[in-house]
Amino acid sequence: QVQLVESGGGLVQAGGSLRLSCVPSKSIAYINTMGWYRQGPGKQRELVANIIRYSTNYGDSVKGRFTISRDIAKNTVYLQMNMLKPEDTAVYYCRADTAYASYWGQGTQVTVSS
What we know:
- By secondary structure, the protein is mainly beta.
- The protein has no helices and 11 strands.
- It has strands at 4-7, 10-13, 18-24, 33-39, 46-52, 55-58, 66-71, 76-81, 90-97, 102-104, 108-113.
- Strands 2, 4, 5, 6, 9, 10 and 11 form a 7-stranded mixed sheet that branches. A 4-stranded antiparallel sheet has the order 1-3-8-7, with no helix packed on it.
- The protein is globular, with a radius of gyration of 13 Å.
- The termini are far apart.
- The relative contact order is 0.33.
């Protein structure tokens, strides 16, 4: 079992920045994949970005604006979000994939005002 604690969401104006953090209860050095997903109002949950060891992947809508990273010493995965747009408004979820199961955080709200 892996618990995930997210933080860093909030209200920001369009063009602004936020950084989300996700701290798992297990060392990220032993988690295959860490990722961020989001679910906007009336939309399906979608991949924002993930990191598989040292390889990163991004959803098309956030490429060039968002950056996922991990700090093993702090056991934290970050999502740096720049040039935010109103359409980025969503609940952002952290996800951890181990060899046996996938785990989700409780989500953190990001609201971008125009």
